[in-house]
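User: Design a sequence. Structure:
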């Protein structure tokens, strides 16, 4: 009887198929692990950003008194207008130009329930500083604020601030992940 040498074509095909299936499964596992790491680092970064932005708002408001000439809080609690105090001389306080800190629809994603710019966030808003006399944008501080993600709540002299940012979900079409930070300022007289 002749000794069997090598493998039949069928055996080779079966072996290659099994190898391909194993490689595809490994790739899927690695891909998911990578996505999960990327997503959790985006969430951590968004949390740092949210904390930093709330501190920035606190710093601005701390300088402003609620008696500053243009002080006002919108009825919806999503916009605050104030003047920064530039100092006092001979008992006369001098105030900076008015600022409004608020959120408004992002330039590339209008408020229509659709993710127009395809970044995984629906109707994300921008955190902006407006010139209240013209409604022009003086500064943009963040572009991934959740819809209605900025809330000011005044209780006596205590002003609470809550900001919610969003991070796109790990998979396309997944719901965004919200990250919130809050702070408070005791307003000066
Ligand atoms: Ca979007
Ligand atoms: Ca939209």
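Assistant: Done.
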């Amino acid at each position: 009887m002749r000794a069997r040498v090598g493998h039949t074509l069928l055996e080779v095909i079966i072996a290659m198929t099994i190898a391909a299936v194993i490689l595809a499964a490994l790739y899927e596992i690695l891909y998911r692990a990578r996505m999960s790491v990327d997503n959790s680092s985006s969430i951590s970064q968004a949390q740092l950003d949210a904390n930093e932005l709330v501190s920035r708002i606190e710093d601005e408001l701390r300088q402003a008194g609620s008696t500053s000439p243009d002080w006002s809080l919108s009825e919806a609690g999503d916009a605050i207008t104030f003047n920064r105090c530039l100092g006092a001389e001979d008992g006369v306080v001098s105030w900076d130009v008015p600022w409004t800190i608020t959120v408004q629809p992002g330039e590339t994603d209008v408020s229509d329930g659709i993710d127009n710019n395809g970044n995984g966030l629906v109707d994300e808003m921008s955190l902006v500083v407006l010139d209240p006399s013209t409604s022009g944008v003086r500064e943009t501080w963040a572009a991934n604020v959740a819809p209605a993600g900025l809330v000011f709540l005044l209780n006596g002299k205590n002003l609470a601030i809550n900001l919610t940012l969003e991070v796109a979900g790990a998979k396309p079409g997944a719901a965004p992940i919200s990250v919130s930070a809050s702070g408070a300022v005791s307003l000066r007289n």
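Residues 109 and 117 are 6 Å apart (CA to CA). The radius of gyration is 27 Å.
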